[in-house]
Structures are given as structure tokens and as C-alpha cells.
């Protein structure tokens, strides 16, 4: 039981990162029904912005978070305006292909500009200590980095919930998600609302990128591919388009991964995740929190 609970703690810290990335997927999908496959690569850009802020500007990790969020938000808005906005009324397949192309552009552009070297955040920016925990008489351990990841994730999620439910911008986002034509008739600037959604999602990806770089102690231009795909799986598991679903899916996927690694094989971790995606699509395509909507013909 102690080993099981230890794996849960490890899984929650990894799942927190997946949840942050999945939130960006689900926000964009919820408002314009687009799977933004470039989202994982925006994560990579945010991780590098944070790295440069720490290494070259000599800033602390909190300023790195802020600068990375600002830079990734700007990139997200530019991508939306340049690549996706002209295809707003085009078939969804065209926008999907464009998203894949934008992802490849960021990945290969990153390789050209940043090189293929693996870099690490400098030691000492976060004090990573082992902390003993006692749960039901069992002795467990957690690191300060794991607690930081979980705390940052919870704060970001609370902020997002506040923005979505209690601000004018959040009300506009919900209106556009429900019916963009009706929202436009009510005086809502749909284009600006979509841009804000991309900016928020990209900011969350930047935070996840820095946390991922700290968690694995490595960053490189292709680092966003697998976490981005897994976060998409997490969003589908929870119910894509639903913010609580993205949170639940991220945490569930992180715990599931660590269980597979701990009790079976780390080599099977990635294949099992995508097998899980297939099972979810077959058995409950709307996700754990989604509802199946039937249409009468």
C-alpha cells in the first residue's frame, strides 16, 4: 500500500503538468472546435523563454514564469491570427492540417535556431529536497519540486476558473463557445475573444513547459511532441471542451502512467496511454465528464 500511495504522489505531480497542457487544448476546442496540434510546441517555446530568462537575464524562476507566459501568449495570438483566422469558415480538415503544419514549423524552426543540444535549467533556482510524509501510518516521500508543481497547477486552475466564470472576458468566451453567431449579434467581438482564448491556453502551456523542464531536468526543441500528444489524450479522457474534464483527465493520466511504470514496465508507458485513448473513444467517446448528444434526423 505504501508503494501504491507513493506512485499516486508521483503521478499527481506528472498529471499536474498534463492537466495544464490539456487545458489549452480543451479551451481552444471548446470555442472553435479546433485541435491545436501546435500547442505542445508552444510549450517548448515557453520552456526556452523561461530558460533564457534564468540563464542570461539572471532572473528568478517566478519572473521566468511571467516572461514565458507573456512570450507564449503573444506567440499563440500570432499563430491564431496568421494561421487559423483565415480558415475560420473553411472545412475543419483544412484547419487541422494547418495546425499540424504549424507544429512542424515550430519544431523544425526550433531545431534550426536552438540547435539539437539538450539543455538543463541551472541548479539552485529551486531547492529540491526530500520531504517525509506520514499517511495512515505509512512513511512516504515527496520532493519540494513535486509540491511546487502541484501548487502552481492548482493556483493556475483556480485563476482560470475565476476568469471563465466571473469576468466579462470569461462570459464572452462562454458565449462564443455556445453560439458564436448569437454572441456576435449581442455585440461580442468574436475574433478578439478567440485570440484571448489562444493567449490564455498558450500561457498555461508555457507554465507547463517550465515545470516539465524542471521535472525532467532537460529541455530540447522536440520536447513538446510527446507531452502534447499525451495532454490531448488527457483532454479526450476527461471530455474535450470541458475545463473540469481536462483537469480530471490530466491527473488520471499522470497516475495511470506512473502505475504502469511502477508495476509493469516503463517501456510500456507510452503505448498503454494510446491504447487507453482508443478504448475511451470506443467505449465513451464523449469522455468521463462529457455527455453523448444524440441528433434526430
From TrEMBL:
GO terms for biological process: D-alanine transmembrane transport; L-alanine transport; L-isoleucine import across plasma membrane. GO terms for cellular component: plasma membrane. InterPro entries: ABC_transp_permease, BCAA_transport_permease. It is found in: Cell membrane. One of its GO terms (molecular function) is L-phenylalanine transmembrane transporter activity. It is a multi-pass membrane protein. It holds the Pfam family BPD_transp_2. Keywords: Amino-acid transport, Cell inner membrane, Cell membrane, Membrane, Transmembrane, Transmembrane helix, Transport. Its main location: membrane. The keyword Iron-sulfur does not apply. The chain crosses the membrane at residues 12-32, 39-57, 63-84, 93-114, 145-164, 194-216, 231-260, 272-290. Belongs to the binding-protein-dependent transport system permease family. LivHM subfamily. This is High-affinity branched-chain amino acid transport system permease protein LivH. It comes from Neomoorella glycerini. The gene is livH_2.
